[in-house]
Amino acid sequence: MPWKNQGGGPWGSGPKGPWGSGPQPVGPRPPDLEDLLRRGQDRLQQIMPGGYFSGIGITLIVLLIVAFWLLSGFFRVQSEELGVVLRFGKHVRTVQPGLNYHLPYPIETVLLPKALRVNTISIGMTLIDDPARRGRSIRDVPEESLMLTGDENIVDVDFTVLWRIKPDGVGDFLFNIQNPEGTVKAVSESAMREVIGRSQIQPILTGARNVTEQGVQELIQRTLDSYGAGIQVTQVQMQKVDPPAQVIDAFRDVQAARANLEQLQNEAQTYANQVVPQARGRSAKILQDAEGYKEQAVAEAKGQSARFLKVYEEYKKAPDVTRERIYLETMERVLGGADKLVYDGGPSGQGIVPYLPLGELTTKRPPTTGPQSSGGNR
């Protein structure tokens, strides 16, 4: 069934359809652009009457707009930040904290990463809200903390990584990696697993933490540098290194036994350090005494030998006199300290049977004078 357009334009009421009325407008009508421009001109003429709108007024407005546009390029960089200036999206320079300027948008823009702040990432543990303690508590994450050692043991490791943006690598940090924190966490966990996998469990649990931390830090830094991440790892801290919870009691018993063994060994070493020097001192003293006795005996032997040679020389000159002198000296040396009874064997003593009181002779008595000895003989 044909129908004819009953008038109206594209923004008017519209034509009527074959079933009666035409399409109804939906919602408010859009504003007329020409009407808006005309109203704006009328208001400017009211503000600046007298024809200024046509010349000086427009110039002033343009100058004000340009001035505000140029002033929009000032920006402030906070103490923990660095300003990365982009010109049409390309990194052109990096500015330090303070008041700085860049060409207004859209020529240049600025990014303000917190490049001077030290960030912390925890692996193997997480902080959760604890209503009972009215604060936050640490919860272990076994998927991250359980690691296999080189001697096929399992160890539970919780550690933190401290990192910051390199001052000369801010551009790399912003444009080379998409998720910096996730990248650092993944690389750190991988590095720790690699170092633990090359190590024995005993040094890790006792005294090799510093060596492990240093090795993990160096491996993380090499990996991030290969990515061009612009990140500097400042420190790796191992918070907890224990066997799994199922065997930790038995392991602590073994550790206590080893500690007692080390204590006993240290005590034995201390005793040895004390006794050995004393024994060496006594040995040195005995050697010195023996050396002195040796020198004394040799000197006495040499003196006696020299004396004998001298006596022999005199003996060859006068044998009888020398023999008698030696006899007298020998008798003097033998009888000098002994108790003596002298029997002269004269005629007055004939028929006397000598009586020797052997018991008294064996008893030490003080020496007697001449008259007492004579009386004793009678």
Automatic annotation (TrEMBL):
<feature type="region of interest" description="Disordered">
    <location>
        <begin position="358"/>
        <end position="378"/>
    </location>
</feature>
<dbReference type="InterPro" id="IPR050710">
    <property type="entry name" value="Band7/mec-2_domain"/>
</dbReference>
<feature type="transmembrane region" description="Helical">
    <location>
        <begin position="52"/>
        <end position="71"/>
    </location>
</feature>
<keyword id="KW-0378">Hydrolase</keyword>
<comment type="function">
    <text>HflC and HflK could encode or regulate a protease.</text>
</comment>
<comment type="similarity">
    <text>Belongs to the band 7/mec-2 family. HflK subfamily.</text>
</comment>
<feature type="compositionally biased region" description="Gly residues">
    <location>
        <begin position="1"/>
        <end position="20"/>
    </location>
</feature>
<dbReference type="InterPro" id="IPR001107">
    <property type="entry name" value="Band_7"/>
</dbReference>
<protein>
    <recommendedName>
        <fullName>Protein HflK</fullName>
    </recommendedName>
</protein>
<keyword id="KW-0472">Membrane</keyword>
<keyword id="KW-0175">Coiled coil</keyword>
<dbReference type="InterPro" id="IPR020980">
    <property type="entry name" value="Membrane_HflK_N"/>
</dbReference>
<dbReference type="Pfam" id="PF01145">
    <property type="entry name" value="Band_7"/>
</dbReference>
<feature type="coiled-coil region">
    <location>
        <begin position="247"/>
        <end position="274"/>
    </location>
</feature>
<keyword id="KW-0645">Protease</keyword>
<comment type="subunit">
    <text>HflC and HflK may interact to form a multimeric complex.</text>
</comment>
<dbReference type="InterPro" id="IPR036013">
    <property type="entry name" value="Band_7/SPFH_dom_sf"/>
</dbReference>
<dbReference type="InterPro" id="IPR010201">
    <property type="entry name" value="HflK"/>
</dbReference>
<feature type="domain" description="Band 7">
    <location>
        <begin position="72"/>
        <end position="255"/>
    </location>
</feature>
<dbReference type="GO" id="GO:0016020">
    <property type="term" value="C:membrane"/>
</dbReference>
<dbReference type="Pfam" id="PF12221">
    <property type="entry name" value="HflK_N"/>
</dbReference>
<dbReference type="GO" id="GO:0006508">
    <property type="term" value="P:proteolysis"/>
</dbReference>
<feature type="region of interest" description="Disordered">
    <location>
        <begin position="1"/>
        <end position="33"/>
    </location>
</feature>
<keyword id="KW-0812">Transmembrane</keyword>
<dbReference type="GO" id="GO:0008233">
    <property type="term" value="F:peptidase activity"/>
</dbReference>
<keyword id="KW-1133">Transmembrane helix</keyword>
